[in-house]
Protein 1
Amino acid sequence: MKGWNSGRIAAAMVLGLVAAALSAPAAAERTEPAPKGLDGVGLTDRRDHQVPLDLAFTDESGKPVQLRDFFRPGRPVILTLNYYRCPMLCTLVLNGLVNSLKSLSLQPGRDFEIVTVSIDPLETPALAREKKQSYLEDLGKPGVGDGWRFLTGREEAIKPLAAAVGFGYRYVEEDKQYAHPAAIFVITPDGKVSRTLAGVEFEPKTLRLSLVEASRGGIGTPMDQFVLFCFHYDASAGRYAPVAMRLMQVGGALTAAILAIALSFLWVREKRRRPTS
């Protein structure tokens, strides 16, 4: 990669792997001290925290925008914080997101929005445009260009956004790169953090349920709602897990319904057998 020697790339790999390890699970408390150079790097659970939607950025075409421009009624937003010249970890996160999106029937720009924001205030819209084209080609879903936006901005907009979602990062001067965690954020249509999905791979079923849950009924099927009633997100496992009490309630209701149907059937059959007077 132009501008990067082998030593810096190796350092980037080490920092990236350690930062990824600090990313999961988002809700867990880290008790050991962070390695030197990674102080403040990691994820903090900010569920239900409001994202400041008036923050100003520039989109991949060079147009000034605000975050609120990408929030619409009923549509959740997948937010990713990366930087476009990142030598490793950002690529892994975005590749993992693309791989998951390929398996979803939900469509960016129709059912939800994706907003990728660079944490490097020196990066340009031209670089953002180049990255967008690359990832849209990899995704291979026609017509989703307006549903995935790549933004750049000033530090005074980037920092409060990162703080609002619990994304701790820092610039490592000696390596000339950013140390940061690996995660994506699912935001509700009104701009509140709904779910932090840590790591570089995102199970399609988990991503779908996270989007449906964040939409608050705006997208998804009745089956999705049924699954969300019986399952809850387990941050330690990074996926939705069954809730025993809810399953017992559903099982009891089904048993009662089956019993009522069987008794009704027996009653009707018995009535038909009785001689008419």
Protein 2
Amino acid sequence: MFLTARGAEGNIKFVIHPLLLPLVTSLSVIPFALAQSDVNPVNADAILKEIETIEQKQKQTLASAKNSTLSRLQTAASSGAAAAGFYTDAVEEVQFQGQKGKAEAFTDWKKQNGDLLRSKPMQTALMLHLRYAVLAVQRKGIEKPETLMPASEKYLSDLIAADDVFKDKPPQQALDLLTKPLGQSIMAQWLRLGDWLPDDKDFELTPGNVTGILNKNIRPFLREAKSPNLIQTWDLQMQIEADRITTGRSDHRADEFNTVTRPRLIFQRAKDMATIGQPNRAVSEIIVLVRTYPEHPDFRSWVAEVKNMVKPAASAPAPAETSPQ
């Protein structure tokens, strides 16, 4: 656009090429022209009505997409074979997408992993993973999350029952499906589940995390309802952890559980006893802990809790005396 030339005094000057002068002139005028006038007044009512219509359509579109995703997950979780087929499709679309010689490479992968995909541990892990993904997608944005608690309890029961399937050195791929967050699985990547998953603060996102499922998906609603079933969840957790340690046959882990972990769980159970209206029973439980485990790392917090629970309520201040008139 600019040409350079030296002036009489040897200074460099910038000169606009004659052919570009009309364009430069028109561009320089545009901002001023736009600033001089506005368009006709908008129809506010019409715009707001249109926006409302667009928002409603967006909600319907999102609801339809969510239902479609749920349907696919539920169908895939219906059987071991269906789950394995769904996983295979996800691998093809994610792992081999855009790869040179995709068809041949994917065929080789299926041959190498045929036994894995037909194995009971892998199919069980896949079905549990997909069932839990259904729960997670249902949880996102739900108005009454407590309505999902029965489904969470049923899932947890089936997860615990599946322990026998995984006790004899299960394949790592099966363990990963239960020990890693839902969003990290190749199936979640395929379905782009990220936007459909709830916040980790409100919902446990790891399908095999029994403690997390109890703490986030089940106990909060039992506390709110002051249900006696809340206490049973702690007994269940202690039983599960004890059984898993016994299966692992580790004397060190067993000793740590009995002297450190189990007392901690008993303390949490006692606090929930007070929550549901059994404060005397709660104090009795904690006193037993204080007497039995004086060297426990949480000893001071136990003592503080007992003191706080048994101290008398602050009496109301006496009314101020009034001087006689």
Protein 3
Amino acid sequence: MADIVKATPAQINIKALKSLISNDKLKERVAQMLGRESSIFLQSVLELYTDGDYLVKCDPNAVMAECMKAASLKLPLSKGLGFCYVIPYGNKPQFQIGYKGLIQLAQRSGQYRYLNAGGVFEGEKVKYSRVTGELVIAGEATSDKAIGYFAYFELLNGFSKSIYWTKEQCEAHAKKFSKAWSKPDSPWHTNFDAMAIKTVLKQIISRYGIMSIEFAGQFAQAVQMDDAEDHIDAEVAAEANAEAIVMPEDETAQQTVIQATEEEAGF
């Protein structure tokens, strides 16, 4: 008698996810959000789930719930694009918006000409006016050790704003507001610079940026999803402190997104 090959937990989970993706109610819900892009999105969910040995250990229903958060923000899930991620922590998946995702949401307002964030390093001198908000970074870096972090934007109407936080200010903020700070393996301890850059970017947009109904809703939703701060934004370190990102002036505001829930999605 031939030996019966028993399916592995990963194979069982993949089969369950494929069945979920084929569910007509779920497909209809995704189509309402993304239109013609819905089939591409669902395929990207499957590719994301089967890429590597970590996410596939998570419950497929929980993974789909996190992926639907990306759909609600109309952000692609492809790792290569770096707009957002679904990261497994143990066997619990979690949606995380990336640096480029925040840029994308700002761009949708149609009001940003420039938006940039990065580190200030040893050897560089910072002149920051708390009254006018003017920020000047001068000198040459003598090492790759950051002493502070900046964020800057300019709107199409000419309004601009910059902020600068020292490394100590960022650390104090993390200790006060980040649930992940107490964890030894927290990215605040393993990749402090990346987390600090992302933090100042959130601060400047939420406090001083354009808050149209569409953009404010999307940005608040994205920040709420991301507040666990358990993800290392590798693309922040790669993209920040490079050339400022130029926003196209003809970008129009998008329709208000609809936040999906597990119940609405039918799983």
Protein 4
Amino acid sequence: MKNINIFCFIGHSGCGKTDYINDILKDKKFISKGNIERLIYHTTRAKKDNEQDGVDYYFSSKNDYYSVPKELMMEFRSYYTIPEGTIYYYTIIDDIKNKHNLLCICSPYQYEAYRNWASINNLKETSDFKINLFNIYIDTSMKIRLLRRLEIIDKDEDILEICRRTIQDNTEYKDASARMPELCNPELCNNTCIINNDDLSHYNSNLEKIKDFIRMSISDAH
């Protein structure tokens, strides 16, 4: 049976997940040798100026979301945002079934859905692939996360959205951790790499630690 390894970058909003995953993907030699890609999921939110369709997300309409049968999705979520109202995120099974090693920025609910879906899929005799989940937990204090994000914005509505996301994020972690204690205590999970991102002077060494974890996990999964 084919293995599909999904490396879930987990951590509170603003912890630095995007920075790490983007820098790993810039290392073309590393991702080519490991047959690594980004897991691209769908969203109905508006595309930001620095984002590309099919690279950061698949940007779709709400009608697109409603038209996909739920049994064809690995997960789906909705959030209420200050600038746009309700937006949706979702992962379509066909987007991953022909892949090998995927990097993914994960929310707690998204990770929980992946974990539950994989548990069911991996037991099916008819399934032609197995999902292996690995966690890369980026730990950054709330004060540092907020200060870093506030430094790079200049609009009041953006500040409100950051506050909303921080509150939503804390609620989501509290709720999901009741079912998945490893989200608050990553050491409970064997397939986890824990990174402290409070001190950015350690960023490069942290990046290499993550790459080593991915490299060894891919090797062990074979």
